[in-house]
């Protein structure tokens, strides 16, 4: 399992794991899109590459997920594959996916925002916990 849903009263909380911090970040992103639609139905038809910075790993994860959520909100792009490279507090990602198609991608939840509340990155265990505002 790439991620688990944690109990939270009003919002959605995801805890993701990986064999590296990069894989963990990719699994959090997959989990986020899997809350929006069934991520298994997202085909890697297009790719989008971007780089972001953060002051620490938590802000790097926050900025990474916020960029992906922006791409969904503004351009209706869904992603399910993420090639990530982290050097210090810089992240470069090539995300693969496709445009949202309501006939193919049944909406599950609307994620309004990534939050800093309870956000945690554990670089030793290669895990991350993120709370999403829905």
Number of discrete helical segments? 2
CATH class descriptor: Alpha Beta
Helix content: 25-40%
Largest sheet: 4 strands, antiparallel
Mean pLDDT across residues: 96
Strand content: 35-45%
Going across the biggest sheet, name each strand in turn. Answer: 1-2-7-6
User: Uncertain regions: pLDDT < 50 for 5+ in a row?
Assistant: none
Helix-strand sequence? EEHEHEEEE
Rg, Å, rounded: 14 Å
- Give the CATH H-level superfamily: Archease domain
Per CATH, which architecture? 3-Layer(bab) Sandwich
CATH topology category name = Archease, Possible Chaperone, Chain: A, domain 1
Commentary on this structure:
This protein has 134 residues and is α+β, with helices and mostly antiparallel strands. It has a single domain, classed as 3-Layer(bab) Sandwich (Archease, Possible Chaperone, Chain: A, domain 1). The chain is 26% helix and 42% strand. It has 2 helices and 7 strands; from the N terminus they run ββαβαββββ. A 4-stranded antiparallel β-sheet has the order 1-2-7-6. A hairpin with a 4-residue loop joins strand 6 and strand 7. Helix 1 packs parallel to helix 2. It is globular. The model has no long low-confidence stretch (mean pLDDT 96).
């Amino acid at each position: 399992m790439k991620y688990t849903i944690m109990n939270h009263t009003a919002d959605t909380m995801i805890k993701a794991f990986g064999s590296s911090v990069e894989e963990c970040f990719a699994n959090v992103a997959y989990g986020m899109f899997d809350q929006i639609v069934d991520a298994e139905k997202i085909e890697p038809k297009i790719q989008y590459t971007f780089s972001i910075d953060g002051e620490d790993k938590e802000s790097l994860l926050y900025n990474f997920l916020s960029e992906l959520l922006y791409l969904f909100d503004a351009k209706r792009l869904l992603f399910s594959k993420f090639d990530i490279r982290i050097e210090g507090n810089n992240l470069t990602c090539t995300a693969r996916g496709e445009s949202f198609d309501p006939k193919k991608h049944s909406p599950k939840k609307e994620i309004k925002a990534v939050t800093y509340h309870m956000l945690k990155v554990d670089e030793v265990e290669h895990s991350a916990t993120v709370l999403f505002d829905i």
